[in-house]
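NADH-ubiquinone oxidoreductase chain 4L
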Amino acid sequence: MSAMHLSFYSTFTLSCLGLAFHRTHLVSALLCLESMMLSMYIALSIWPVENHTASPTLIPLLMLAFSACEAGTGLAALVASSRTHGTDHLHNLNLLQC
């Protein structure tokens, strides 16, 4: 395993662990999701270069578009929850009370 693969795997794993264990604020959960998407985007962007393919694939561009949509949706949820509940703590959000 090369150092580049190790860095991608460790970045993705650390962001998954951050999402699993540090779930106090919605902002920290969104940042962990964005770091996961960023590591997947970089890995998919470098994959054609490592395989010596002539044409770059469209998958990294689609991944970047979905990541932007996910970020916009997450920020909209953050603004909505902070307006209705007054905070972005995840323990205050309950689907049964909405």
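thats it. Helices lie at 3-21, 26-50, 59-85. The chain has a mean pLDDT of 84. bye
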